[in-house]
Amino acid sequence: MWLQLRCGLEPRPLAALGAVMVVAAVLAGVHFWSGRPQAVSAPEPVKEGATASGVPGDPGSEDSGAPLRPEPSPGLPPAVAPGGQIVVDVSGKVRRPGIRRLPPGSRVADALRAAGGVRDGTDVTGLNRARVLADGEQVVVGAPGGPWPVGGAGGGGPGAGATGPVGPAAPLSLSTATVDQLETLPGVGPVLAQHIVDYRAEHGGYRSVDELREVDGIGDRRFEDLQPLVRP
Predict the structure, then answer these.
(1) Which among 60, 86, 174, 182 could bridge 135 via Cys, Cβ 3.0 to 4.6 Å?
(2) Residues whose CB is less than 8 angstroms from the CB of residue 20 and which lie 6 or more positions away in sequence, other chains included
(3) Which residues make beta-bridge pairs with 132?
(4) How far is it, in rounded angstroms, from Cα 232 to Cα 177?
(5) pLDDT tens by residue, 5-24
(6) For residue 7, is it within any domain?
(7) What pLDDT score does 102 carry?
(8) 179, 193 Cβ separation under 8 angstroms
(9) Angle at Cα 147 formed by Cα 141 and Cα 162, nearest 5°?
């Protein structure tokens, strides 16, 4: 009544003004109520042994009731063929040449035994029968026309009491030589010989002798020593 008499308002505009004021008061109350500070509870500590997979329904989560499934650890795959075996090619002067499947950790002697043994009269002086085999390796026994001639201690011909390699008769083929044969080259040990074979397996053989420069462990000086003794 005071506002109506003071401002000279009619009842209808006065009612509208009152409604606007009520709505404004309600909105202000809601705004201040939603912005009030609230208490936040600290997260629960993670239980020991829990895995990172916590999706409900997952076979390895606790919500499914199944036992926790360990995550596979990253790492290099084992150097064996599928089935837990290694596959080697045994050729040359053996009784049953061909592909042989052997347990991991087998040695050259095991591969020769699986191929029926070495033929009678074959010289295996330069063959390291105690070396551990790798998957995909080739073992050549007494290949004809090999890189080293076999002679006696007194310089006799082939078959006259062989004692080991005496010198290169022809360049050694990088595409077919075994690790044992590569070790007979000057300055080439077991590790470097394996690098040469690994490069051959990765690149499908050698197309030129210059590719030896790309093998790990062969510098310019060593390449100059090996270049006249090898061929692709």
Answers:
(1) 86
(2) none
(3) 107
(4) 10
(5) 666 666 777 788 888 888 88
(6) no
(7) 95
(8) yes
(9) 65
CATH at residue 175: 1.10.150.320
Can you give the residue range of the structural domain that contains 179?
165-232
Give the closest residue to 139 by CA, choosing from 153, 129, 151, 150: 129
Number of compact structural domains in the chain: 2
Tokens encoding 28: 């202000």
Q: How far is CA 46 from CA 29, 39, 55, 61, in A?
A: 40, 22, 15, 14
Token reading at 192: 């470097």
Tokens of residue 44, six digits? 């629960």
Count the residues in the chain. 232
Cβ-proximal residues to 58 (8 Å cutoff; 6+ apart), any chain: 64
Does residue 226 contact residue 212 with C-beta atoms inside 8 Å? yes
Domain CATH for 119: 3.10.20
Q: Which residues pair with 231 in a beta bridge?
A: 173
Q: Kindly state whether residues 138 and 88 are assigned to the same domain.
A: yes
Which among 142, 150, 149 has a CA at the least distance from the CA of 97? 142
**Mean pLDDT, the chain, whole residue set:** 74
Residue 55 belongs to some domain of the structure: no
Task: Please check whether residues 91 and 133 belong to one and the same domain.
Answer: yes
In whole angstroms, give the CA distance from residue 87 to residue 110: 12
**90 belongs to a structural domain:** yes
With contact defined as beta carbons under 8 Å apart, do 162 and 123 qualify? yes
